[in-house]
Structures are given as structure tokens and as C-alpha cells.
Amino acid sequence: MVDPAIIRGAYAHMTRVGIIGGTGYTGGELARILSTHPDVEIAAMTSRQNSGLRVQDVHTYLRGYVDLTFTERISDTKDLDLVFVATPHGVAMKEVPALMEQGIKAIDLSGDYRLHDVDVYQRWYGHEHTDPDNLQDAVYGLPEFFRDELKGADLVANPGCYATSVILACGPLMKAGVVGEDVIVDAKSGTSGAGMVPAVRTHHSTCGESIIPYSVGNHRHTPEIEMAVDRFAGSHTKVTFVPQLIPIVRGILSSCYFDIEGDLTQEDVDAIYEKQYGGETFVHYVQDPSIRAVVASNHAQTASKVLGDKVVSFGVLDNLVKGASGQAVQCMNLMLGLDEKTGLNFPGLGV
Amino acid sequence: MVDPAIIRGAYAHMTRVGIIGGTGYTGGELARILSTHPDVEIAAMTSRQNSGLRVQDVHTYLRGYVDLTFTERISDTKDLDLVFVATPHGVAMKEVPALMEQGIKAIDLSGDYRLHDVDVYQRWYGHEHTDPDNLQDAVYGLPEFFRDELKGADLVANPGCYATSVILACGPLMKAGVVGEDVIVDAKSGTSGAGMVPAVRTHHSTCGESIIPYSVGNHRHTPEIEMAVDRFAGSHTKVTFVPQLIPIVRGILSSCYFDIEGDLTQEDVDAIYEKQYGGETFVHYVQDPSIRAVVASNHAQTASKVLGDKVVSFGVLDNLVKGASGQAVQCMNLMLGLDEKTGLNFPGLGV
Amino acid sequence: MVDPAIIRGAYAHMTRVGIIGGTGYTGGELARILSTHPDVEIAAMTSRQNSGLRVQDVHTYLRGYVDLTFTERISDTKDLDLVFVATPHGVAMKEVPALMEQGIKAIDLSGDYRLHDVDVYQRWYGHEHTDPDNLQDAVYGLPEFFRDELKGADLVANPGCYATSVILACGPLMKAGVVGEDVIVDAKSGTSGAGMVPAVRTHHSTCGESIIPYSVGNHRHTPEIEMAVDRFAGSHTKVTFVPQLIPIVRGILSSCYFDIEGDLTQEDVDAIYEKQYGGETFVHYVQDPSIRAVVASNHAQTASKVLGDKVVSFGVLDNLVKGASGQAVQCMNLMLGLDEKTGLNFPGLGV
Amino acid sequence: MVDPAIIRGAYAHMTRVGIIGGTGYTGGELARILSTHPDVEIAAMTSRQNSGLRVQDVHTYLRGYVDLTFTERISDTKDLDLVFVATPHGVAMKEVPALMEQGIKAIDLSGDYRLHDVDVYQRWYGHEHTDPDNLQDAVYGLPEFFRDELKGADLVANPGCYATSVILACGPLMKAGVVGEDVIVDAKSGTSGAGMVPAVRTHHSTCGESIIPYSVGNHRHTPEIEMAVDRFAGSHTKVTFVPQLIPIVRGILSSCYFDIEGDLTQEDVDAIYEKQYGGETFVHYVQDPSIRAVVASNHAQTASKVLGDKVVSFGVLDNLVKGASGQAVQCMNLMLGLDEKTGLNFPGLGV
Description:
The structure is a homotetramer. By secondary structure, the first copy, chain A, is an alpha/beta fold. In chain A, the strands form two sheets. The first copy, chain A, has a seven-stranded mixed β-sheet with strand order 8-9-7-10-13-12-11. Chain A has a six-stranded parallel β-sheet with strand order 2-1-3-4-6-5, sandwiched between helices. The first copy, chain A, is globular and about 60 Å long. Chain A has helices spanning about 5-10, 25-35, 55-60, 90-100, 120-125, 130-135, 145-150, 160-175, 205, 220-230, 265-275, 290-295, 320-335; strands at about 15-20, 40-45, 80-85, 105-110, 140, 155, 180-190, 210-215, 240-245, 250-260, 285, 300-305, 310-315. At the A-D interface, α2 and α12 of A face α2 and α12 of D.
């Protein structure tokens, strides 16, 4: 990595971005990634709770990287090119309309713009959707499957962390039409996926030496996965989704089980994934997927094994990077016409 | 719990047991449990590696509880009533024949006597089975499903930890004949299930912040589960088994997915499990299964949820207790005509 | 362990106890331990939050062991022999006076009766002490140092978890007068020591891959340790106490550093500890102290090493057992004239 | 971060480096960091164990970042500018002489060149030092205290991870001469500090729910710290060093206790640290030091609190970055006349 100051001189225009909801994990992670992005300047970060405090005093890891003070709202949006909305579900839909009206591009990291069907949204989220117009136009921000739509998009719904891992794991087989229209997803997430607000389930004494199934069969990423897959697969797939909390901080492993339709060898499977991901920067097809290989990076790994008349596919990523803020920056790059990997071209920790 | 010395006086005869392979985790755990069992005296513990050392100097947690020195072999078996064989696979079958000849009951905690078919054993374990005669007679030591056979048995094959969790989770639905003959098992185990020998996969830096699939589709508990289930279910079930290592020390959660055959409501499922386990001491049907609720005890929890046309069943236990040494003591109690819960009647930690 | 039902018949009188504050970790742990105590019957458990719920539905690990319903208050105390008060600081002093008036023995697990000096209490706890009379009479419940006072005591202040580990580690050297009157205590605790209420510091994403110093130099166990030590050592020792949270659920390791006064060899140190603890059931002097060796038991380990002109002493225990509820039961046994180890005579997990 | 390919064009000369010992954690971490360094090209990586394998197949996190094959030795050193030696103690001193003879700069990450006194080396490492000449000239690679010596150095002894954390924590007070010549260091390290070779102490079941003191009073970083401090403090400080393993993967927290000499207020302490570190890029003085704030980065945090007549200072860092490979790259930058922060200018993870 290089001193951004050295590099920036080479660019005529720095993109100016804002972050609404800068206190939470995804907001902080956005600032962390963007702080070393050569083409971007963070112009504003909002926080209700920490308004008036310096960002680096709240997120001490940003000391020396982000020299801003949290404000309650973005006071002056006129010189912003793009805004990341990292607020809870239900809040984002109140922020996005004004941005769209002012011609500011937006990436929403909540669930508000992921489900194109207003009725489905209301059934799963339990409240009305107040911005159905923009909902129609939002592009689902998974570059490996919707890259063309993302180029030039004005509003992007950044995918959920679980949904990203599942779609990356399952997409190739679904597109190839070689598996049944039914998938069982047994997903495991680190605790940072639950956000920064302390709760019983993420209390260390509760989860630190356990694995905890939750929202069994009724997690909101279920319709998200189904809707996204419908758009690129030829037919509807039904998802049975069982998330489980594991005692790690960052990382998701989703294990996805299909019935094979017709004949399918391991070689066929390997070829399908290599074809899908061989040219990708951030998604890899490997023999032994490893959270540690991708953690702290925008990379994801997939693996797929034929087991008799079934096949299991794994998807592995860092829920805060490829599962949230890193993917949002990848989308931003595409929306702005930048090289997709700008600011994201660093490997996972390995250890 | 009471001072064993106080209680023992009330019994005319103390059962004398030996433990072959006392250094490993299951051997130490047997000693830990038996040291407070009111009817049992540990007469001998063997260890190749620690022969000549005091047990309490190797297993410091047994200080004040086990006053023995490890020997290389059991020198004098004539006054033993029962021997636990806690050696690696392949070693047990060399120890058991002599015990049977001397009329000493035995419980094997390895995989040597779990697969009744010699050919299946050789295919999965990669070496010949040298004791096919006793293999025929070994009873599979899962009391909740084979209690009658265990009473008075001479040789018991103690089930594998994964297998126990899966059979407890799935058995009721399989027996009831309400699900398809096909189950997907996504199992997660703590690291103590891998034993005491350091290895790359269980090196803390490798697994401490990860979840690692291994032996995908070819773990030896697959045929064990299938064979056990065949004996009490009316038909053959095919198991797709994917084990995964999680960063906890003790505990297993197995998530088992079935297709429903015909109609099956949540109420039906609840009734099936309550009927199966309502009278059991150690196996419970609950809403929210929790490893912490059972860890350090011989208790197991099951849960089962209807999800559309599928059902997911969970099995939770401590892999070293109900998944190994505790269950072995439960079997011993049955073999000796003692109350099944003697020496095991203590709750899980909760926290 | 044996079926309590079998054993109880042998006793003419079962001690009837109540637990005020049965929802928290120490309240649940008391119930867990007492449920298999051969001489005790839990007659009542209170909980403001869970009043009306069955204990085993709140603490699912107690299913089959505790058949009670939480009540808001103990309605009928007249047949109780002893009450454990497991409430937060400041609440216990409102419960204890009534118990004393009715002639019911009490063990307080909070800090309310640990600091005999009202002024010191008020300075460290920040509110007035409303029961100074009973405060004078409370015995500090560390049996290894105050056993004689505990026999027949009416009110016991159960020590803090950190304090217990430090006093066990340091007491022998302090009593022997071979070290300076100044000790640096670097203590590390698992997260269950912080209780059941979710908070930022014990949120898994905060503490799960970290070690967090807190209350540096101003933790309330500092005066507790100093006061307790004053009573058995010949002179006042000043404690510099730095607690740190580590990502384990149960367990404390306190590392205590002294300057040596005069000559002191490792052999001298070994002799001092062996003399102090050689006859104890629950406290051991070992070469390599291990949390796993004592976790889930009432045992503690100490170790002490001469390092030039300094000496480091370690104290290790399970903060919920020897550091709280187990020690409270040990005190109860002494108060009631029972064998001190009754109901506590089981080893640590080891693994 | 930017695509190195974009940046490199701006530089006339890329520094060509080799890594001897590329399989271990520090070797892999060097490759990880250097792979995005804008001025460096990794020209060779050696590995006895993995010779002939592609680096990215051994370290899968380097896929797309390092396109090299491990060789047994560096076949052609003539075009190398600098070599990192990441081998075990005792091996480095066999590699360094040839590099020095060829005029290739070297940075040794082992302990071989840290102790300038041959006798001290031999006492602590137990074998002869075979390269005493270069030992005299090696510069201790802690830029914040030896920056001037590092500029233009030919051979650098990269500090140990513990030693770095302790010197950063204690150095300011020692230089200022306000504390006694005696420090107690209670240090806690994550398991990656023990390297990649599986062992009993780092077996997950051993350490995963524990904290383990080891090498109490005889760890090799003790003389290293003392020697380094002697060079910048006016007088000799005696270090009592007690390392402990904690169940995290990356990170060290060292807690260092001094007696205060004369008067010293918290304000004095704050001023001393601010003066020392106010101008540093990578070392910060903070109120609440946090491993998560620095993990995966080259940043370190210090904090210091007056506690009566004592003061405790904390040092926090990622043992594989500022404690090893990141610091080595920082030294390389200085040796080569580059901006010290080149390739290292990214924040810690925070979460």
C-alpha cells in the first residue's frame, strides 16, 4: 500500500463521499477501507450517538487515517458524489429519496432496497416500504453476477453478508441448471455480523463456547437469496436457510446442499466454477476453503464437492468486507467507472 | 455429589474396572467420571507413554480422586469385572479377545466394534478386522435405542460422538417413518473430539478463528450412523455427512435435514420426540438447544423444526461425556444391572 | 455422583435453603451445585425478572434437577435454615437484616458485607451502607484462612472471585513474612465474571479476540484483598490490582509479584505452600497451574516461583465455583456442621 | 490501496528482495505485506519443506498476489538488494555471512543477531554463535528508538514480538529516568507468536479456554529487552518477564509495572509519552489500549497509568506485523532510504 497522498496527485478529481451511520461496524469498516482508497475522499460521516466527537476518538483504529468529526446529518451534500447509507433497516429508505432527488448516487448497506417486491419486503421486515419508486430501480450490488447493471447505477442495494456467501457458493450450479430447484443452506457466522449493540445471544459468556442456531427458517436473507438467484438462474430455487452463530469475530462459512439433476461428475462441477470465477479478482474456487485466507480482505472462496447424488458447495468470506463494506466499495468503483479493485487490492490475513 | 467414601460403605460389592489407554482424553474422562461413581473402583489404568507415572501427575485434575500409577499393561486381570478400552482404532481389536476369553466384560470406545460387517469395516478403516467373531456379538452402546440389548451384554461398542448426536437427533423421525430415506447432516464439533495429539487442523492459530470442513463425504461415522439406524428404523436411510471443526473445546451440534413424507405438522413432530424422549433421563427435547446447557454432563438435547416441506433436527451434546466416556459409563451401568444414571446424575454447566 | 434420592433417605434432616436472586450466573450455579448436594433441599428461589416461570425453563440445564417456580420474594421463610443472597451490590444489605432477625443464617455473594469498615465501603461502592451492625459480624468466607470463624457463623460474606484467587496465591507468603509489604496483582478473568447482563466490554466482537484491562487501579476487590490479608498476616500489605478480561467463559488466573525480604529459596517457597495447603481438599500447590484442571469444580491451584530477588505466585480457579457459588456451599457446610466437602467432591474438567 | 502495477510505473527502480524461510508465519506475512508494497518486488522465496510448490498453493491467501515457486535455496542472489531471513534461531547465522560478503543487505527475524554479547547469546540460546563479527554490527530494528542507526544499515536484527511491545511501553519512562531500575513485565500473547508447528501448548483443546504461563523467568526476550533498553536509557534496568499464552490468534498485550522514583503525576506521564510518540506514525499513546484497534496493521498502542507510588504501562501490537514482519518492512524502508511508512500505511481492523 502507498501513502494515499503520494498517489492522489496523479488524479484530476477525487471522488467525495459521505457515510450516513458511521458509528456501527459497517460504517467504521467503510471508513477504514476508504481511508486508503486512492481516488476517494471521505467528506462527511454522520452519527446520532456520537455527533460532535472526532471519528478517530470513537474508532481509535482510524487515528491518522480519518480526520473528521461526526455530524448529526450531512449538512452540505452539494459537493458529494456518492453516499453510503449504513443505517439500520427502515432508516435507509428515509435517507435515500433526498439523495436521489439531488442526483447523488447512493449505496444502501441495509436491507431496505434488496427486495424488489414491496409486499415481500413488508412481510419479512414487518413495516411498510415508504420508497417504492426507488426500490424498483435499485441494483443488487453483487458484481460477480450483476456487473453490467452496476456500471452507472444510481442506487445500489448492497447484499447481505449471508446472501453474498450463499449466492457465490450456489450461483454457478444454479445458472448451469445441473441441480434441483431446492437448496438447503446451513450457514455459520462470526459475531460481528450481529452488529455492535450488545445482546444476550452475542454476550461472550453465552456464545463464546457454543454454536447457536437462530431465526431458523425465517431469516430475512432467505427471500433476498431467492430473488437474486431468480434473476440469473433460469428457474426459481427454494431456499431452506438455517443460520448459526459461531464464536469467531469475523467470517462466514455457508454450506449449501443440492440434489444433482441428471449426471454430474466432480470434473463437471470444477469446470462450472472455474468458468464462472476463473476471471474474477475477488472470488476463487479452491479445494479447501478457509476463513483465515480471506479474513480482512474483499476476497471470497468457494468450493464444491459431489457426494453421491448430492453436491455440497461452500462459500467463505469476511462478513464485514466482501459481506458488507468491501463489496460496497467494489460497487462504488463500478458505479463511478473506476477499476473495480481500486482500494481493495490486498490479500486476506492467512493467519 | 457426595463423598464416595461415605456412600460406598452401603454397598456390599464395588465393581472393579480397568482402563486401557488412560492417557488420552476419553481415558482421562472415564477416570474423572468413575472417580465419583459410588459403585465402582478403578483398579488399573494403562498407558504406554506414561507408564510408571502417577495418574494425578499426568491428569492433574484427578489429584485427590485417583490414586494409581499408570502401568504398561494390566498385569492382573483376574479380579476385574469390566475393562474400558480407550485406545486408537485398530488397537482395541487386539485387546478385546483376551478379555472376552477371561470372562471380563468390555466397552470399546474406539471404532473397532461399531460396524458389524467386516467388509464395511475394512473399506472405511483401511485395515483388516482381526476379531470378526466378537464383532458379531458387540452391542451398539446407545442406551436410548438399544437399552434392552445392553442389559447383560459382554461387549459393547461405544458409539462415536458425531454418531450419537445424529442418531439422537434423527432417530425419532426415522422410527416414525415420516421423513424421506435420505438425510443431510451438517455437523460441528469442538476440538477435543480430535483427541490430544497436536496437529495442523487443531493448532490454535489454524482453527481458533475459523470453522473448518474436513473429511467431507467420507467420515467414518457415516456407515456407523447408517448401520445403527437400520437396526431400529424400518428401512435404510442414506446419510450425507459433512463434519466441521469449530473453535470450542467441548461440544457438538449436528443439524440434520430431511424431506417430509406426506403431511407432518410441528405438532406431530413435537409429539414424536416427546414420546421418544419424555421418559429419558439424559435426552431432552427442547425449543432452543444449547451446548452450554449440556456441557460437562451426560445430558443431550434435541430440537426439531418443520420448515415447509422439510424438517431440521438438531442434536447437541458434550462429545467427551454423552459422546464418549459418559455414555460408556451409562452402558456399564446397564451391563452390570445398576441404575442407569448412577454416577452420572449431575447437570450441565449452563454457563 | 449418586442419585440424591437414594442418599437422602439416610439423613434424618434435610437442610432447607433459599436463593434470593436466582436468575443470575451465581444464583443458577448455586442451584446447579445444591441440586446434587445430599443434605440440602432448595426450598425457594426468587427472581424479579422471571417470577412465575419455572426454574428449569429459565436455566434449561437444571431440567430434571430443580423442580421449582421462581417467586418474587420468599413468601414463607419460617422453615428455611439458610438463605443465599445472590443479588447485586446494594440489594443484599436490604435483605440480610430481616433474615438475621428471624434467625436464618445467610451467605451474601455480593460485596455488601466484605468490607468491615463502613467508610471504606462507602468510598469504594459509592453509596451508604444501611446495615452497619451486621457488617461488623459478617465472617469473610474463605475457609482455607478463616475456617474456625466460619463454623457456626450466622452471616458470611462470600469473597469476590478475584479476591479469592489472589488471597490463595499470596496468603502463604504473606503469613510467612518473607516478602515485602507490597504486591502487584495482574489478574485475568473469563467473561462470566462480569455477569449475565450484556455490555460493550463483554460483547463477543469486542472481547472475543482481545484482552482488555479495566478498572485499572480502582477495582473494588483491592480493599477487599487488603482487609482480608490484614487479618491473617502480621502487617499491612498494599495491593496494586490490574484486572483484565480474557476471551474464555470460566476461569481466573492471577499473577502476583512480590519483592523478597531477606533470603528465600525456591525450596523455602515450596515448603511454605506445602505447609499451608498440604492438608486442604480444594487448594493445591502445583508446578504448572491450569485453569482447565479446575474449571467446573471447587478446586483451586497455586504455584510460586522465585525469580531473582522477586517471587511470582499464581492463583487459578473457576470464578463461578471456588470464586463464587462453590465456595458459598463450602461455607454453608461449615456453618451447618457438615463435612466441608459435601456436595463439592468432584474434580475439574481437565479438558 | 492501489493496484501495485499502476504505481510501479512511477518508479525508476524496484527493490528486489528475497525471503529465506517462506513457509512459516513470519515468512508468509512478509510476502503478504510486500506483495502490495509499491517499491518492492519479491524475487525469491525459499522453503525446505515446500520447495517446488507454488507459493499461492501453500499460502492460499496470496493467490493473485505472489506468483512465485518456492526454491530450496536462493539460486541467484546477484540481483537482490535485500534478503529477509525468517528461519529459526541458529539457522540465520549460517545464512547471513554469505549475504554480507556479497554486499546484500539483510534483515534477520530470528534471535540470532539481537544479543550483541556472544556469551549472553550462548547462555540463553544454548549453542555457540558462529558469526560474532556480523553480530557486532547488527542494528536492533526498532525504528522508534534506533531510527538513525537503521538508515543505511546493512544488517538488522528485527526485534522479538514481546520485546517490541515491552520496549514501546517502557522506553519513554526509562529514558526519562523517572522510574526505578526494575520492571515487572506480565505479557500475554496470542498463539500465532508460537509459530506454525503444532505443539501441546498451542493445541486448541489445551489453550482454547485457558491462559498458560510459560518460560516463567527464563524467556529469551528478557536479555533482549535489557540490552536494547541499556542503549537508550541512562542506566541498567532489570526485567522480570512472565509471558502467558492467551486464546487469541494475533496480538500481544504487555503490562509493565515500575516503582516511581521521586514525584510523578499522571500529567507528567502523559507528557513523557506524548513527547516520545507524538510525531510517530505507528506508535500511539492512548487512554484505552486495544488489540483489535491495531491487529492486522503495523500500528502499536501504549498507555500508562499512575497507581499511587507505582506506574503501569501497557504495550499493544499485532505480533506478526509490528511484532515481526511489518516492523521488518519498516526497517527495510529506512535501510533503503524510502519513506518509512511505504507499504505499511493502513489502519488496524478495529473489529
